[in-house]
Each structure stands twice: as C-alpha cells, then as structure tokens.
Request: fold
Amino acid sequence: MNVRIKYASLLLLFFLPIGVYARDVAGVTVAEQITLVGTPLKLNGAGIRSKFFFDIYVGALYLPEKTQDAETAINMPGPKRVLMHFLYKEVSREKLIDGWNDGFKDNHSRKQFKALEPKLDAFNQLFITVKRGDQITLDYLPETGTRVSINKQIKGSIPGEEFYPALLRVWLGKKPADSDLKEGMLGDE
Reply:
C-alpha cells in the first residue's frame, strides 16, 4: 500500500505543474505567469470576446498583482499586458480600428476622448488585418508607454503613461466591449 501511495504522489507531482503554469481557454494555452521588462506578471484572468455568436479572440490580462476590481487593475502601477489571441478567421484592420474608437468613445467623456484622440490615431496606425491564430500583445512599459506587437513583432509604441489606462477601459470600463470578457479578465474564478 505504501508503494502505491508513493507512486501516486510522484505521478501527481509530475503532472501538477502543467495546470499551474498554463490555462486552456477555447483551445488556446494561456500562461499563468509571464515576465515583462524583468517583472513577473500574473494572469489576472482570461475570457473570450464574442460578437453575434462568433468567438473573435481570447483576451488575457496580466498584472503585477491579481485583482477583481476594474479600477484597481486599470490604475495599478508597473508593467501590464493584454494578450489577444484571434479565433475568428479574419478581422480586418478597419474592424480593429472601429473597435478601438468605439471602446474609447464608450468609456471616456467627450473631453477625455478629444485629449486622447491624437494618441489613439497613432495607435490605430500600428494595426493590420489579423487572422485566426494571430496574437496581438499590448504592453505597458513604465519607461516607454504602450507597446504594440503583432505575432511577436513590435509595431510601435505610444509614449506616456496616460494612454494605457484609457486602453484598459475598452475591456474593463463601465461600457466594456464584452461584459463576459471583462468578468474573465478580472478573474471570475
């Protein structure tokens, strides 16, 4: 009996780390922890962006510390990441830009939007049409600002610290792009 318990314990220890370091969301493996500019970030939560019954992308939010509070996540200091892994066959550049513009307009006052508009325009210029399997990462780097990468290729950065919190409101604001995705990104576990 002791040998069986020891063997079962060893098997459990061997397989346990797989679940600790990654999570499956709609067939997409999402890491539980990443490192960004030397800072370990924890997967705060992940979910699926859906529109008209179609799954568009898996969205994941990485923060220095986990929180279920949207304002805390938005205003948390330090590096952050939003990962978008596309599930839909193709999302045009125009649709992405329309989504960013709508998300900013829906979650900011007219005055705030006007102040952010030049940076939003520069941000929109960084995007291309994406296809199933493509990944967009949106990183906040305290020394740089908001960095956009598509399929691990850096497309550019938006300087300053005020843009990234405004961007996070697209998912975590009072009128998020998808309320189920907001709950997922806020770690509804």
In short: Confidence is low (pLDDT under 50) at residues 1-20. The chain is about 40% helix and 35% strand. Residues 24-185 form a domain with the Chalcone isomerase fold (CATH 3.50.70.10). The radius of gyration is 18 Å.
